[in-house]
Amino acid sequence: MEGFSVSDIAPILDGIRDIVSIIDSSNIYRFVNHNYCKAIDRPFQAIVGQSVADIWGQQIFSASIENEIKRCFSGELFEYEKWIIFGKLGKKCMLISYIPCYNNGIINYVCVINRDITDSKLLEEKHKELGKAFKSLEKIKSEWVNTIDSIEDIIIHTDSNGNIKRFNKAFKEFLRTDYNDIIGKKVGAVLESAGFPLNDNLFNNNLFNNINQYKNSQNGKWYNFKTSFFTEMESQIFSGLVLVIHDITSLKKQTSELESAYRQLKEKQLQIAHQEKLACIGQLAAGIAHELNNPIGYVKSNLNSLSKYTDVIKEIFSALHESTNLSNIKMLIVEKNIPFILSDLAQLTSETIFGINQASEIIKNLKDFSHLDSNRKSEHLNINDLLDNALLLSRNEIKYYAEVKKNYIPLMDVSGVSNELTQVFLNIIVNAAQAIRSYLKQDGCSFTQGTITLETGMDKSNCFVKIGDNGPGISLEHQSRVFEPFFTTKPVGSGTGLGLNISYDIIVNRHGGSIDLESSPGHTVFTVKLPLKKS
Description:
The chain has helices at 6-14, 34-40, 44-47, 52-56, 58-73, 118-150, 169-175, 187-193, 200-206, 249-322, 326-335, 338-370, 383-398, 418-440, 476-479, 499-510; strands spanning 19-24, 29-32, 78-85, 91-103, 106-116, 154-159, 164-167, 211-215, 222-231, 238-247, 379-381, 402-407, 414-416, 450-458, 462-469, 514-520, 523-531. Helix 13 runs parallel beside helix 14. It has 16 helices and 17 strands. The protein has a five-stranded antiparallel β-sheet with strand order 2-1-5-4-3, sandwiched between helices. The protein has a five-stranded antiparallel β-sheet with strand order 7-6-10-9-8. It folds into four domains: 6-116, Beta-Lactamase (2-Layer Sandwich); 151-247, Beta-Lactamase (2-Layer Sandwich); 266-375, Helix Hairpins (Orthogonal Bundle), CATH 1.10.287; 379-531, Histidine kinase-like ATPase, C-terminal domain (Heat Shock Protein 90).
């Protein structure tokens, strides 16, 4: 600024919005405009003629203003931005300009212009923050797109009318087409053209928010379709759906293989159970033969007697045919003791029928027990009868070593497979008999005959069977393993170790019941619970 007087430019400076002051070389205010007075809340007369240090304080003056005035008086014109507390305006960001004022080539004054740029500065800062946020959002979006594109499943986002809005890389590669050829198309039509047997109506009605399986007619693969609602964040109004298509071909193949392996395993399990049953029968064979031998023995004896009686009767009939001498015939009847024969025939017949029935019952139970379980059929069963059948089959195993005490109550029927449950009871009873037999051989045994107890009962939903013995008991370390396959405490060759494992499978897995063990020295009880037949 060259050749001016303060009074000449005062009206101009009062008319501008900036805060202006003119300072001489002695740091004395020579002029301030109206906005300057207003900013520091002082009248013109209280400022002009005062030093800058008087107005702003010596500390502030010495810290920054003094050096800046000197720079300007040295001929330097400069400006800078600075946040300062400017009087009653408070904290403001100012663009401060220092302009040397010349007169005849000599700097007489310094004009200091403070322009309030707070709003623009804040807007600039906001723009910077928005720029950072936008870059961050773009980065997140890019990462999210990359994440979705890295997923092998097909992901499709549609609007509320089923038009495709977005999709991931897997869908583009599956269709082998350009992005623009997919966007905006009906998702049902696009998928149908890609080999999936569905259309828009089927898609909307049957797949919505469900999981369905479809076989692709073009590549022969199987896929899971999962659709989910998509709503606006604020209004929660339905705006479309997200469809996820997952290739399950390999999974279906593995499932099929697992199902096949499971069927084979079940068949093997049935075979093992049947083999264990046959092994049990083989173990009991001598005893069963002995049980059969008793009725068969007296049936044979009775038939021999009946044969002799038949010869005598034939002799009497022959005499009646050949002779008319009644006295001779009467003598023959007395001699052959026909009255005794006639009375004995009734007893022989009764005993023979009883013996045959007894043998028949043993054979029937043995046949039912040994029947293969591949076509297992559930029926209504009386547990007390099954226990008696097991006792009959194991009677010879028991009778020399233990007495049996039964405490049955009338029970409601259970639903189950007869020979499977009989196998369970037979396994436990035979184990009890064998435990007692081995215990009797020990020096510390205090009795000569053991006891096997059979108890039945029921509550509202279950019937139970308790089979106990007073053998040596099962050690604590073995109790947790008795139902494991191939675990046995018997000598080698005396058992397969499968009896209780198969019993557990029959009761728990096949009949929905439970089997528990309680044992201590001299006392062992197996408790079997089975659900009662539903009315």
